[in-house]
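I need you to check the entry underneath: sequence plus C-alpha cells. Let me know what the C-alpha cell row says about the fold.

>
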Amino acid sequence: METIRLTMAQALLRFLDNQYIEFDGETTKFVQGVFGIFGHGCVVGLGEALAAKENTLPFYQAKNEQGAVHAACGYAKENNRRRIMAVTTSIGPGALNMVPGAGTATANHIPVLLLPGDAFACRQPDPVLQQIEIPYDYTNTSNDAFRAVSRYWDRVNRPEQLMTAMINAMRVLTDPSETGAVTVALPQDVQGEAYDYPIEFLEKRVHHIDRREPTSGQIQRTVEAIQKSRKPLVICGGGVRYSEAGEELERFCATFKIPFAETQSGKGCILWDNEYNLSGIGSTGGLAANRLAKQADLVIGVGTRLGDFTTCSKWLFQNPACQFLSINVSGFDAYKMNGQPIIADAKATLQDVTKALQPTGYQAHWEDQIAKVKKEWNLEVNRLYCEDIPERLSQVRVLGELNEHLLPKDTIVISGSGSIPSDMQRVWRARVKGTYHVEYAFSCMGYEIAAALGAKLAHKDRQVVALVGDGAYTMLHTELLTAVQEHQKIIVIVLDNEGFQCIDNLQHSQGIVHYGNEWKTREADTGKLTGPSLSVNYAMNAESWGAVGLHADTIEELKTCVHTALQEKRPVVIHVHVAPKSMSQGYESWWRVGTAQVSDNPEVVKAWDSMQQEIKTVRKF
C-alpha cells in the first residue's frame, strides 16, 4: 500500500481538505476552513500544518473560542449543514471555552468539528501548562467535559488512531439524524508525531446523504391517522429546512386545508402570508397557532424536536382526543409525545403522503377558523408594529420597523437569546424563504454576533443583521473584531433595555421581587443593586473595535441609522434604547418552571399554587 510520511496534524488537514458531500445529485466540498485561537496546545502541531504552504484550508483567527464555534454554527446552518468549519484551540481554558458552543451545535443538530489540543499523551512533562490533574482518573482531562455535549467524542493518543477517529467523525457529521458537535481531542505531542499514512486515507472521499424514503407501511399509517382526524395541525420544524421540504409542506397543507405552525428553526421555510401559516407556536408563539393547537385532534410534527417551548411544557394540546404523529429522520425525536414515529425524510414523506391521500378527497374540518384566527393575529401584529411608548421606543415596534420598512426583504436576520427571539417568533414576517435564523434550542447568549459572522461568510452578497439584547452583547461580542479583520460587513442592532429583562419578567411572574436582573448600581445605604441604571455606550464600544457606531432613540433616527448601515462597507453597530418590558407577552400559552414550593412571600406561594393547577392538565410523557 502506497504511503506518505506526515505528522498527524498534517494528515488531518489533508484529510479534511478532501471531504465532499453529495446530496440530490450535487457534490460540494464539505470542510471550508478552520476557526481557531492558537496556544501552546495546538500552535506547533496543527498550527504548523495550517501555516504550511501546502495547506489550502483558510484559517480564521477568532477572538473567543465560544464565538468561534458559534461562527462555525452560523456558517453550517446557512449552508443547510452541507458545508462546515472546523474549530481548533489550545488545551485547558481555551478548549473549555468551546463547551457552550458545542452544546449549541448539538442541541440544534448543526455539524461542527471541534479539534481542541490536549495534554501530552506520553505524560513525560506532566503536569503541562493548563493541564488539570484528576487524582482518581489520570486519563481524564478538561476535554472530557465535551463528552456531555458532543454527538461523537474521541481522543487521538497515537498518530495512526487518526484514521478511525476521522472516519467516525465524518460518519456523524454527515448523518442528518445524528449530526451535531463532534469533538476529536488532539494531544499536543501527538499532533507533531509522524506516521506513514496510506494514500488511500487521504484521497477524495464523497459522503452521500441519501434521503430516507418512507416505507409503504409508514405512508399507510400516516394516511390512516389523517383520515381519522377532523382538525389536524402541522408543526413545521427545522427538519423542513434541512430537507428542503418547504414547497412540499406548502402543497400538502393547501391540498388538505391543514394549518401549520412554526418552530424557531422551521420559521421562514414558507412565507408569512401563506393562508395556512399560523406563525409561531407555543410559549413564544402567537395567538393563532396556540388557539388552534388547543383544538387539534392530530398534531403532525415535521422535523421538530418538540421542545418545551413548542409544546408549552406538554400543556398546549388540550383536546383529550389529540394524537401525535412525527415525521423525522431522528427516531429519538420521532417518538416524543408518545407519537406515531415516521422515521423518514420530510420531503420524501410529504410527497408520498400527498400522493396517497389526495385520491380519498380528504379535507380538514377547520372551516373558517383558520382565516379568522389569522386575521385576528395579523391585526395584533400590526398593532405591535405601531406601538407607541412615550418614554422610549418599544422593542416590538423596532422589530416591526425593521421588518416592514427598513431592511431589504432578503436580509438574513439572526438572534438567539433573551426576549428578542420570543418577539421574533411571534411577529417577524419572513418575506423571502430562508432568511430567518434564530437559535433557541440551547438559547445560548452570545450566539448572535458570532453566528452573524458565520452567516456572512456563507452569503457574502447578502445583508446579515444580528438582533441582540444588551445582555447578550456584553456576554460575547468579540467576533465583531474578527468581522472587522475579515472585511465582513455585518449589522448589529443592540436593543438596550438595561438588563436581563427577559429573566426579570420570568422572576416577577412567579411572585419574586425584582432582584439581580436589571442593570442598576449598588446603593451604599442598602447594599443592594437598586440604584440608578447603568449607562453603556455600545456604539462607542463598537468604534473601539474598528466598526461603525451609531445611535437611534427615535423612529426617524432608526431609519437614518439603518440607511447609513446598509451603505457602509465596515461592520456597523446601532445602539437603540428600548423601554424595559416593551417586548410581546404570552398569547394563551404556559411554561413550566421550578417555582418555590414554600416561601414567606405570599405572591410566590400563589404562583406555586397556580403552577400546580396547570400541571394537572399537562401530558405526562
User: Anything to note?
Assistant: Residues 369-385 form the longest helix (17 residues). The domain at 3-208 is CATH 3.40.50.970 (Rossmann fold). The mean pLDDT is 97. The chain has three domains: 3-208, 216-373, 394-498+534-577.
